[in-house]
Design a protein that fits this description.
53% of the residues lie in helices and 13% in strands. With 79 residues, the chain is α+β, with helices and mostly antiparallel strands. It has one domain: 434 Repressor (Amino-terminal Domain), CATH 1.10.260.
Length: 79
């Protein structure tokens, strides 16, 4: 969901987080990955304006894009 909010593909996320595309793919499939990998992806997404949310009452998790991302900015950080 966070990746989709920024319109990133898997390769873009991996590049931003400094991990391999295969590792990012394993995480999205629900396979185990190192905690440092999860933190790297979270920090990369938060740096691009994603906010992770949780509802205390229901326990639901969510994602909000806090910054408006323009096409030119997408091109800048995906290269």
């Amino acid at each position: 969901m966070a990746r989709a909010a920024l319109k990133l593909n898997l390769h873009d996320l991996a590049d931003l987080a400094g991990i391999s595309r295969i590792t990012a793919q394993r995480f999205e499939k629900g396979d185990p990955v190192a905690q440092s990998t999860v933190e790297a992806m979270r920090h990369a997404l938060e740096a691009k304006g994603v906010e992770f949310t949780a509802s205390k009452g229901t326990g639901r998790l969510g994602v909000t894009a806090t910054k408006r991302v323009t096409a030119s900015k997408l091109v800048q950080f995906t290269r």
